[in-house]
Amino acid sequence: MTYHSPFALSVPSAAGSGFAMNFQVASAGAQSPGVAGTQERLIAIFTTAAIFVYLVGRFAFHSPSAVLVLYLALLVGGVPLIFDLARKAVRLEFGSDLLAGFSIVTGVLLHEYLVASIVVLMLSGGSALEAYATRHASALLGALAKRMPKTAHLSKDHKMTDLSVDQIAAGDALVVLPHEICPVDGEVIEGHGDMDESYLTGEPFEISKAPGSAVLSGALNGEAALRIRATRVPADSRYARIVKVVEDAERKRPPMRRVADRLGAWYTPLALAIAGAAWLASGTPERFLAVLVIATPCPLLIAIPVVIIGGISLAAKRGIVIKNPAALEQLDRCRTFIFDKTGTLTYGRPVLAEIVCVGKFDELTVLRTAASVEQYSRHPLARAILDSAKTRKVALSEVINVSERPGEGLSGTISDLTVQITGRNKVLKRDPALALLLPPVIGGLECLIFINRELAGVLLFQDAPREESRPFVRHLGRMHHATNVVLLSGDRQIEVEHLASLVGIKAVYFGKSPEEKVALVADETQHAKTLFVVDGINDAHAMMTATVGVAVGQNSDVTSEAAQAIVLDSSLRKVDELIHIERRVRSIALQSALGGMLISSCGMLIAALGLLPPIDGVIAQEVIDLAVVLNALRVTIPPRQLSDF
């Protein structure tokens, strides 16, 4: 289908068009008895139906033959489960689910077919219950995937043609219609408008876009059509990689899940010992069965995977991608916090800090002259000068003959004045005698302003610290038990020490090469667990050396193996949220797993004393399972405030 260019005609709203699932989202979670496959779900359904038929036949019609359906349920559901557990036992994998196997076999031997069938339902149904909880906790993946457009609009020869997103190549010119999702990373080549990048950054802000501006896949376009040039193919674009990273993280088997296996390693023999002691003391094997059915540790098998997946999804909803779930066990235990300087504790963009006037020129004249010429430059310092002029409401002058030749700086003509903006080194190479007129070198960046070849002033710039940097650093010791806060940078001493004094950091390392950073982080990690927060992936090796590496900012590559977590917005508050999410995940996981085991242990003692018959015990265990899963799902419902500074 072909259209005329939207930049020649008015463009109708395209809200809701062209959206479809573009990713295959798998059910995530640890591959264990807690993750249900089709077989387990079918067993759970069949066993439930068999138990219902038995109860109706036994108590409504008083039919002795009703027990036949339980035989069938145990044959269809119990035998596969027993064989699966037997295979694990042969491989010396004595997990806590082994208790369920003992319960089923013991129930059959004691002719407690209803109890054995309910244990089959407990084991298979627990798997299905975890799968449901996992899908609920992983709902973010579906939301992410559904946002990806299926088609894009190729702009060529003043015409717009629809094509599959998979056919986009780097360099293609595309049109993003109003209210459409941007299908690929790129840059604007025509048009002005806004884009909502909240799904990528977690912040509900619209970002202005103009020719030259970068656009991100997954961002929602505003009211104006934009013509963009694709800089990456869709599969390599930021949004697609975020989905991939979150998906991979949910499949990984984190340390907390292995903790569950270790707990099960001692819990299983303990339960068997109590059950055996109860049998010996009472002389009735029913005591043995009663203890086993209440001891079956489904809370341990189900709770931890559900909580971890919920934590990953909660973080992603807040603009934080957890690449390695192991971070969810380590973050709150870090006692040394190491920060990069630029873009982490600072905004990563210079601001005009001071104007040093020379000779007859006043500050307002220097600023007006510089800003008038800099409005035609794309140099990083130009924006700082223009922002300062705008803040001070300085009217700009008309400029002609603007030139920005490499090695010569920026020049232009205002009325009868020739203006040149350049750097100190360039000037001194041309005229070393000017060194006597220049102010001494201080921290930060600078540029020199010449009017009619006469030095008029020096503009001094600083990379300003974030407003949140000082309160964030100050609260680390009080709220997160930090014993050491370090500023580690490759920048000059005067700049690094100046920033450290502003944000309240005493341990400062400056002028360090990447290799030296690795050595310093490794040394700190030997003394305590370390959290290294850095902008982007320039310090990849140092991040891998730290206990936990966190990358902040939209420049961070989400596929970097160095970072264990990525904060998509350059925000220290988000880093604090990440720590609190980890704390919440660990707390709820322990509550669910250990709390469920504690209740089951109390039930074991009651059953050992003969106060809890097998049928009551197996029903009680089902109630415990349900309570544990519901508690685990609390992790997806965050408190109103996840940050504490």
Structure overview:
The protein is an alpha+beta fold. The protein has 21 helices and 23 strands. The longest helix is centred in the C-terminal third of the chain and has 37 residues, at 572-608.
In short:
This protein is of the alpha+beta class and 645 residues long. The protein is built from 21 helices and 23 strands.
Termini separation (Å)?
54 Å
Strand content: 15-25%
Order of strands side by side in the largest beta sheet?
1-3-2-4-10-5-8
Classify the secondary structure makeup into a structural class: alpha+beta
Question: Descriptors for this entry?
Answer:
alpha+beta; seven-stranded mixed beta sheet; disordered N terminus; 18% strand; 645 residues; 21 helices
Secondary structure topology:
Elements lengths: L1 E3 L33 H23 L6 H24 L7 H12 L3 H25 L1 H8 L4 E6 L2 E6 L8 E4 L9 E5 L2 E4 L1 H4 L4 E4 L4 E2 L4 E2 L4 E5 L7 H14 L3 H28 L2 H11 L2 H20 L2 E3 L4 H4 L5 E4 L1 H5 E12 L5 H12 L5 H12 L8 E6 L3 E6 L2 E6 L1 H7 L14 E7 L2 E12 L3 H12 L3 E5 L4 H11 L3 E3 L4 H14 L2 E6 L4 H6 L2 E5 L12 E3 L4 H37 L5 H19 L13
Parallel strand pairs: 12-19, 12-21, 19-20, 21-22, 22-23
Antiparallel strand pairs: 1-3, 2-3, 2-4, 4-10, 5-8, 5-10, 6-7, 6-9, 11-23, 13-18, 14-15, 15-16, 16-17, 17-18
